[in-house]
Design goal:
The protein is an alpha+beta fold and 119 residues long. It has a single domain, classed as Winged helix-like DNA-binding domain superfamily/Winged helix DNA-binding domain (Arc Repressor Mutant, subunit A). Helix content is 50%, strand content 17%. The protein is built from 6 helices and 5 strands, in the order ββααβααββαα. β1 (5-7) and β2 form a beta hairpin. 11% of the residues are buried.
Length: 119
């Protein structure tokens, strides 16, 4: 049986529970996937992930920033300011897991999926 893990005063039953607290949910891994190759502005992420609401994207980015996976850089002091999101060095440590999730998703799509036609 695994040992409890304590991080920042929060106790997790196991390291899987810890990892899922950091990257779990519908959108966090999708956002990380879109940041894996290059830094992006908020509107670029909105365009690349059209199904996500603005509020959800903002909240998820804030949570990813708080967990240390994503950095938010603000350029300029007065409007229009430029805000750019990027993976941190810690965030880049998640890339092998992200690649494994992507490969498994491709496998499931090939085995169980149907061809979807975009209108």
């Amino acid at each position: 049986m695994g040992k409890n893990v304590k991080i920042n005063g929060k106790i997790y039953a196991c390291t899987i529970s810890l990892a899922m607290d950091i990257i779990g949910g519908k959108w966090k891994t999708v956002i990380l996937h879109h940041l894996k190759d290059r830094d992006k502005r908020y509107n670029e992420l909105r365009k690349e992930i059209p199904a996500i609401t603005e509020m959800t994207l903002s909240l998820q980015l804030k949570q990813l920033e708080e967990s240390g996976l994503v950095a938010r850089m603000v350029y300029g002091e007065k409007p229009p300011i430029k805000v750019v999101y990027s993976l941190t060095e810690f965030g880049k440590t998640f890339l092998p897991a992200l690649e494994a999730i992507d490969q498994w998703g491709n496998y499931v799509a090939e085995e169980k999926g149907e061809v979807a036609i975009n209108d």
